[in-house]
């Protein structure tokens, strides 16, 4: 069994298209097919089912792919660790930000002052699968309601969820409300695929209603502008949206049920963590500790 065979197998398993993979590798399709047949012969099991002109990963292939991906991840981690061992620092951190985006400028600029040689590659993706998670050193995310932190997860912040409305709205005169009292109100909300939306939908369900979503928007600034203009109300994270201008908006506490969310830092447990990534992990934990202490 050769590394080249495993590489070809992984590419075909991910694409499920022999022609595309052959074009990508700049080899003939017959040579690629022969390599896979040799691999299957070495293993003693078929890895793909061939349906007409299509090639589909079968259950044997799915089992084998799991271990092949681990091996390639180990090789990638070995390269990173060798680089760490032979240089002062690996100077890039890949970060996926799903929550706390308005705090990111303070986090990155503060870290940069301490470590000016370390660069960042930052993306925003709400939907990740097993193939993409390993591409990032860290993911800043919202934990699921019933999620139990694992060895590869740190809780950065637990924050209360409040309601925001226009100053002219009847709710603006209230300090707090039961969530059930706003069951008929139109909501301006994040899209349904976001973790915060999952959380707020859960609390609405606990309060006995399904929220009436007037408009979905991914940008928190736009959501609050629409609320200020009287189009509806919205859920408001108490701390992580603080950098946004609240002028013209009333903030109302939710007395029942108690609504909150957890911001977490997570990473691939099988992924090698570079020295620069370790520095960032320590820094961001300390940053949010200061945020929590300042709000007490």
UniProtKB/TrEMBL annotation:
* Domain HTH lysR-type as annotated: residue spans: 1-58
Q: Which GO terms describe its molecular function?
A: DNA binding; DNA-binding transcription factor activity
Supply the Pfam families for this chain: HTH_1, LysR_substrate
GO CC terms, sorted: cytosol
Keyword annotations for this protein? DNA-binding, Transcription, Transcription regulation
Q: Can the keyword Transcription regulation be found in this entry's annotation? A: yes
On whether Transcription regulation is a keyword of this UniProt record, the answer is yes
Its recorded name reads: DNA-binding transcriptional regulator, LysR family
Q: Which family does it belong to?
A: Belongs to the LysR transcriptional regulatory family.
- List, alphabetically, the SUPFAM superfamilies matched: Periplasmic binding protein-like II, Winged helix' DNA-binding domain
Q: Which organism is it from?
A: Acidaminobacter hydrogenoformans DSM 2784
